Amino acid sequence: MMNNKNKQLNPDAQFQPYATQPMGSAQDDEIDLRELFSVIWQGKWLIIAITAVFAIGSVIFAINQPNIYKSEALLAPADSEQGGGGLGALAGQFGGLASMAGINLGGGGGVDKTQMAIEVMKSRQFTSDFIQNHNILPDLMAAKKWNIADNSISYDEDVYNAADNKWLREVQLPFKPEPSMQEAYKEFSKIIAVNAAKDTGMVTVSVEHLSPQVAQQWVNWLVADINNEMKQRDVAEANRSKAFLQTQIQQTNVADIRTILYKLIEEQTKTIMFAEVRDEYVFKTIDPAFVPEEKAKPKRALICVLGTMLGGMLAVMLVLIRYFVRKD
């Protein structure tokens, strides 16, 4: 009877374990969080030691990184007064008349000359010719330090002997002591940037190097070489067009058709003459390359901060992992 009365007096007694369970879970979570901070606090000296090692290492690494200088030039697409070379450029003007003569001049469309010049500048063939013509392979692949006192470049003695002009690096086949043009292209692609602004159409050419003078010189050479390369291509196309038109003249006796063909040859001759007298054929220099006085990289302060943060995070993870492994 007494038990029944107690049950009646406490009708919710049977539900008490379920009512107190959420509070117990919250307490467990709080204890786990306290335990976590306790573990970190107990391993504070290990965390400090590892973080200090990473901090010192990042400082040493940042100090040993050589300064890299960046020189750039701002270019504008040159106006093509002659309307471009080749028969394709003449199709819009003389396409109808030429079709009456049975001559196909091709479509008037084509790749934008500025964009084509940019892609040519990035190509393997142009880069290989640039490296070989200017003999810059040692400065590209073996440069170790720039001496500001005498404006000279020191080379890695294990890679290149400047006195004997001999490559000494040890590599496995199929590579050779002297770097191939494929290797040189990969390295050159890392230090050159050619970008065109979509809103203005301006083109920026930049080069990064240990020596600020070398960076400036390479930018100037790149601009001059791409102008010359595109000029030679248009002249060669115009000459082929002239040869084709002259062949067509010999195959017809109709006076009107011959007049059209002579007009087309005249246009090609103008293209060749225009190219020969113009140095800035594709790009006009708006802001020439300069010798930079300040380094572009490395960002030594950022390297030190990131290295220290990485060390701290790894140290905390190590302390926690060690604790939970021992606990299990």
UniProtKB/TrEMBL annotation:
One of its GO terms (cellular component) is plasma membrane. It is found in: Cell membrane. It comes from the Bacteria. The keyword Membrane applies. Residues 29-133 form the Polysaccharide chain length determinant N-terminal domain. The keyword Glycoprotein does not apply. Residues 1-24 are annotated as: Disordered. Keywords: Cell membrane, Membrane, Transmembrane, Transmembrane helix. GO terms for molecular function: protein tyrosine kinase activity. InterPro entries: Bact_polysacc_biosynth/exp (IPR050445), GNVR (IPR032807), LPS_length_determ_N (IPR003856). The chain crosses the membrane at residues 45-63, 301-325. It is a multi-pass membrane protein. Residues 284-323 form the Tyrosine-protein kinase G-rich domain. This is LPS O-antigen length regulator. It comes from Shewanella psychromarinicola.
